What does this fold into?
Amino acid sequence: MTIHTADAATAADAPQAAAGAIASPPPARRRRRRHRVQGQWWVPWAFLAPALLLFLIFRYIPMFQAVGMSVENVRPYLGNEFVGFKNYETILTDAAFRDATINTLVLALGQTAGCLILGFLLALLLEGQTRKLSFIRSAAFLPVVVPMAVVAELWRIMYHPSPDGFLNSIIGIMGIAPSEYINSPDSAMWSIMLMGIWRGGPYDMMIILAGLAGIDRGLYEAATVDGANRWQRIVHVTLPGLRPVFTILFILAAIRGFRVFTEVYLMTNGGPNGATEVVMTLLYKLGLEQQKLGVGSAGAVLLFLATLVLTLTVQLLLRKKKDA
It folds into this structure.
């Protein structure tokens, strides 16, 4: 009886074994197929080629050309003339460049600090997995995906200095006198800074939310058991856990602040009376309006070096702190 049962099982498994033998190719064929798939190393590069070509043409080649033009007196159709570091001397001794550098630093520091604070507060308020919070987070992130040109134009309209302007109408309800916003040298820089914080804060919020998800929840439970209140948990658990995130956001925000151009150009064009003139708008005017391409290229190289030094300095400080 047992022998017959075993024979029946063997007979039942025979078609499956035969099908498996037919379905699975021999080892030599599998090796050839694997070698053929691994040998197509050019496939991902073929997909990346259009984007890399655009980067090469519109970013990297102009960068190297700007370095070359920074030591030349650019004369279209007449041939460039080598002048050494004269363009750097001109841009560094220019009072307008110094004022634009100060304005850039003020705007970069203000927007960086404001975006980090606003993003951190929004992340604390909107942390969670409920569907309502997901919708609110998506709504809060909308300013980031709107083009800067559109945002600048909307805020320029809201900043209309007349008493019946949008923002003046709102503050008028609270009994506050109308403000000139971007039309006044005293408030123009702060008005642009406020718009930048409003747009950049939600971007920092999303990255901080990702950082909050990586903090061990056991630390919060241990702090609660030790009697820590919510503020103490934020100070002693949340902030130390978000230190790497804050570092990345600081570098990104600083670079974004140094390269600010669109909002200043569209809202004030560096005015009034140079109160909002930043390095990028000054270089644009030098290079494309005044046809001083060599001096403008020298300023662009200096701006790139300043950004590079800032990034490397922050990285070295972090590495020393980790080693310590």
